[in-house]
Amino acid sequence: MLGMNPAMSDRLFPPNHESRLLTTFKYVDDVLTQAVERLEAASSSPFSEYVADAGPSERKAVTEYVDRVRAVMREFLEKHQIVIPQPSMSALWAVSTACVYSGVSIEELRGRYMKAYGAISPAAEAELERMVADVTGELNKMNAYLQELTGGGSTASPPAIPRDKAE
To answer: pTM of the entire structure?
Structure first.
């Protein structure tokens, strides 16, 4: 077996299979994490599309099942000496990025952009401008807070209000 790494000879899975296993386990974990979050969001978000039909005991049980699935995946990886990469991305950075994307989406609700969907009354346009200013103001406050937490260097800012004066 010329060229084979001696450490690889005692490994059951080659690197490409290890990578596939890790990718799939991460995907399963992400999907299950979102599912558990939906149980919480259904009761806390006015925009949730999910009915809040799980009580505290059901949420706890689902969380325990998810924990057991994670344990089985982790045990499999440990048994086969497949290293789980350490987290490398800041959660605060991810929240700040979501804040920026949210700011862009809200900005596109200004009257001048909404006119692309059809005529809009001056009163409706003024109401949209107020809403955009209010939501963007809150997003800016949240992002300023995030920048304080990270020292200001690692998070991006959502668009300032107003973003531009072009008509």
So the answer is: 0.71
